[in-house]
């Protein structure tokens, strides 16, 4: 029996030591949420209409290339609105419909024919809904990757309110402007063939086409290779990109031939093969490296290029941010800021101090009650509750959970749960003593018979806490995390630690006939 008690005491000491090691010093190991540490609170809207327009642009350009390759004559192909594009002057209806099927345009669009070889394509409603949902999901995942690369400790990025809204909370962020720029930057990288350029003005470039720019080209602003940020220029480039951002394998910081900041990138295997074929066929022509609809550079293709390239003309900080955005992937749609709040750390410190004093006050009242009502056995309950709080802090540190203001409320609730469990146990022990059992037998019977009740109440509370964690957001999730960990630690302390304390005291009193409870 004595050996068994020693083992139990060693287990309790080891668990408490591990918990203290886990959270000490608390200012370095306990992670604080936005409401305690300060930072920025943003509510964003994903402009899902951009995703629909991108789909229409890509589908229409694929169809244009297919028609040109098949030498099918048509008059005009243009995007009318984000969900509609049309083709005019089709000469061969049967061949045209075959190409529509070939590029898969009929799978996502409802096609209607009109007079004079006019075909109108309208995005199907179910496809539009899927694209909107995918845009929001992809935006959330992309923002999360970018924020993680930024080094923000325990950000909170979730969907909120309406279907297209996102909540972003960044604890400890001080450079709010940079964070917003990094989050909202679309970072769409495209490699496009340059037809003409650079020209100093848009008008000068349009004159090269007699002010009638062909529909397969677009005019983009940019910079002259080797020039500074102020050296503006305009290029006419093909709308269809040879390589896009989703073809990237990696991106890294580097230096250009003049030892200036640059971003090097490599392509995936299939994109590298496609790029190699393209560059070999266009040696001597310019390749536009386009980032967010701006030509960053337009080098001349002197040889076949396969799997690598470089973006030049960027600053030192812009280079670092660009690597992050390229590695995290491009946003599928632009973002609008609906709400922005900055939380100062002084408010967080006030909340921490108030929560600590509330916990100390609650614990002090519990100590007074337990000692007054259960006499010396009340010390056992106090030890159990303090051990519960220590283990709770340790587990939160080990799991990387974030301490929030609702989490502090969870701490106070944990004290109440510990009291409740001890009251159940103590009252059962008193009943056993009233039946004439010895103190040792009463303690054993009390813990054995109350175990089912404690398990039942904690499992019920755990289910509720898991539902809060699953469906809640922000403060509710912070409360749920603390509650779940508190429930787990409370079972251990109320049953194992408290029972070990009773057995340790009774083992020193061989013939104990009474018990202070």
What do you see in this structure?
The protein is an alpha+beta fold. The chain folds into three domains: 2-38 and 344-507, Multidrug efflux transporter AcrB transmembrane domain (Multidrug efflux transporter AcrB transmembrane fold, Up-down Bundle); 49-128, Trehalose-6-phosphate phosphatase related protein, domain 2 (Alpha-Beta Plaits, 2-Layer Sandwich); 185-339, Gyrase A, domain 2, CATH 3.30.1360. It has 16 helices and 19 strands. The protein has helices spanning 2-23, 26-29, 34-37, 49-69, 93-103, 105-108, 125-150, 176-184, 202-207, 269-281, 316-328, 345-374, 377-399, 405-434, 439-471, 475-507; strands at 31-32, 39-46, 76-81, 84-88, 109-114, 118-123, 156-159, 165-171, 189-199, 217-223, 232-238, 243-244, 248-255, 261-267, 287-291, 294-297, 308-311, 335-343, 402-403. The strands form five sheets. A five-stranded mixed barrel has the order 9-11-10-16-15. It has a four-stranded antiparallel beta sheet with strand order 7-8-2-18. Strands 3-4-6-5 form a four-stranded antiparallel beta sheet. Helix 1 (2-23) runs antiparallel to helix 16. The longest helix is centred in the last third of the chain and has 33 residues, at 439-471. It is elongated, with a radius of gyration of 34 Å. The mean pLDDT is 82.
């Amino acid at each position: 029996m004595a050996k068994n008690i020693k083992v139990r005491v060693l287990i309790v000491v080891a668990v408490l030591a591990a918990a203290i090691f886990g959270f000490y010093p608390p200012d370095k190991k306990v992670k604080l949420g936005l409401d305690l540490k300060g930072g920025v609170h943003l509510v964003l809207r994903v402009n899902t209409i951009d995703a629909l327009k991108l789909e229409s642009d890509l589908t229409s350009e694929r169809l244009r290339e297919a028609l040109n390759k098949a030498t099918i004559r048509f008059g005009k192909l243009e995007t009318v609105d984000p969900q509609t594009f049309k083709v005019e002057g089709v000469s061969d209806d049967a061949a045209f419909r075959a190409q529509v099927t070939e590029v898969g345009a009929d799978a996502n669009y409802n096609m209607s024919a009109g007079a004079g070889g006019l075909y109108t394509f309208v995005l199907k409603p179910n496809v539009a809904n899927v694209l909107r949902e995918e845009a929001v999901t992809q935006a959330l995942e992309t923002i999360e990757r970018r924020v993680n690369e930024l080094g923000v400790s325990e950000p909170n990025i979730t969907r909120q309110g309406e279907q297209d809204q996102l909540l972003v909370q960044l604890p400890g962020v001080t450079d709010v402007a940079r964070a917003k720029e990094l989050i909202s930057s679309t970072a769409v990288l495209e490699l496009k063939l340059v037809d003409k350029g650079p020209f100093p003005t848009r008008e000068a470039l349009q004159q090269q086409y007699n002010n009638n720019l062909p529909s397969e080209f677009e005019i983009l602003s940019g910079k002259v290779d080797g020039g500074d940020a102020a050296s503006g220029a305009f290029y006419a480039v093909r709308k269809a990109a040879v390589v896009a951002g989703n073809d990237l394998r990696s991106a890294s910081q580097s230096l250009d031939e003049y030892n200036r900041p640059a971003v090097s990138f490599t392509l995936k295997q299939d994109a590298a093969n496609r790029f190699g074929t393209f560059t070999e066929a266009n040696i001597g022509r310019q390749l536009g490296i386009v980032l967010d609809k701006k030509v960053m550079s337009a080098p001349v293709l002197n040889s076949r290029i396969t799997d690598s390239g470089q973006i030049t003309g960027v600053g030192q900080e812009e280079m670092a941010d660009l690597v992050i955005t390229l590695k995290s992937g491009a946003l599928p749609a632009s973002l609008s800021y609906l709400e922005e709040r900055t939380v100062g750390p002084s408010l967080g410190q006030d909340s921490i101090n108030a929560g600590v004093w509330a916990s100390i006050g609650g614990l002090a009242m519990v100590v007074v009650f337990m000692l007054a009502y259960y006499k010396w056995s009340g010390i056992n309950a106090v030890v159990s509750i303090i051990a519960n709080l220590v283990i709770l802090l340790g587990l939160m540190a080990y799991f990387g959970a974030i301490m929030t203001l609702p989490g502090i409320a969870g701490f106070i609730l944990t004290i109440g749960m510990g009291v409740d469990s001890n009251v159940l146990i103590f009252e059962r022990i008193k009943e056993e003593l009233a039946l004439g059992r010895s103190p040792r037998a009463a303690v054993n019977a009390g813990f054995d018979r109350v175990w089912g009740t404690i398990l039942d109440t904690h499992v019920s509370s755990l289910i509720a806490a898991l539902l809060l964690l699953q469906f809640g957001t922000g403060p509710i999730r912070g409360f749920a995390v603390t509650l779940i960990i508190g429930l787990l630690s409370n079972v251990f302390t109320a049953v194992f630690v408290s029972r070990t304390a009773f057995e340790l005291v009774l083992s020193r009193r061989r013939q104990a006939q009474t018990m202070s409870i």
